[in-house]
Amino acid sequence: RPDGIYCDDGNECTLNDSCIAGECAGEGEINCDDSNPCTTDTCQPDTGCVHTPNNDPCSTGLFCSIMETCQNGNCVGIPRPCSDFSDCTIDFCNEETDECVFVPLPDYSPCGSDSSTCCISGNCIPCP
Questions:
Q1: Which residues of 87-117 are buried (b: 16+ CB within 10 A; e: fewer)?
Q2: What is the distance between the alpha carbons of residues 101 and 64, in angstroms, rounded to a whole number?
Q3: Mean pLDDT, contiguous 10-residue spans, the chain (128 residues)
Q4: 32: which of 13, 38, 49, 71 fits an S-S bond (Cβ 3.0–4.6 Å)?
Q5: 67, 78 in Cβ contact below 8 A?
């Protein structure tokens, strides 16, 4: 075949296969990058791109997620602990403001295991 004529070199990892000096050859390799940090991207000549899940550290970009690692091709973390260790607040992580929030319970809410204590201004004290 004349040079430059399309052919198939049988390699799924090459581009623009054509005849060159009587041989079929590809120019360069295809890009198998799937932009997923949780996969290792390779090319197998017989099948093409392969995206193998890895266990690498990663980042979700979320404030309320910590200790993130790749699991089954996804970046997964655990919830950020947001606790002030007070029985008189509702504690949560606010993704919109990137902070832990501690909302005081209403005054005179019971706190602790002792029914003689109440929450006053976010603190557990003996009930008046």
A1: ebbeeebeeeeeebebeebeeeebbeeeeeb
A2: 11
A3: 87 93 89 97 96 97 98 97 94 98 94 85 87
A4: 49
A5: yes
pLDDT digits (tens, 9 = 90+) for 19-31: 988 899 988 899 9
Terminal CA-to-CA distance of the chain, rounded, Å? 99
Closest CA to 102 of 87, 91, 110, 116: 91
Decide: 70 and 58 in contact? Cβ < 8 Å.
Answer: yes
| In contact, 50 and 73? CB cutoff 8 Å | no
Q: What separation in angstroms does the CA of 25 have from each of 2, 19, 30, 46, 102? A: 13, 6, 14, 15, 65
Q: What is the DSSP letter of 61?
A: -
Q: How far, CA to CA in Å, does 57 sit from each of 35, 66, 71, 78, 117? A: 15, 11, 10, 13, 45
Which pTM value belongs to this model? 0.67
Q: Residue 58: what pLDDT?
A: 97
Note the pLDDT of residue 69: 98
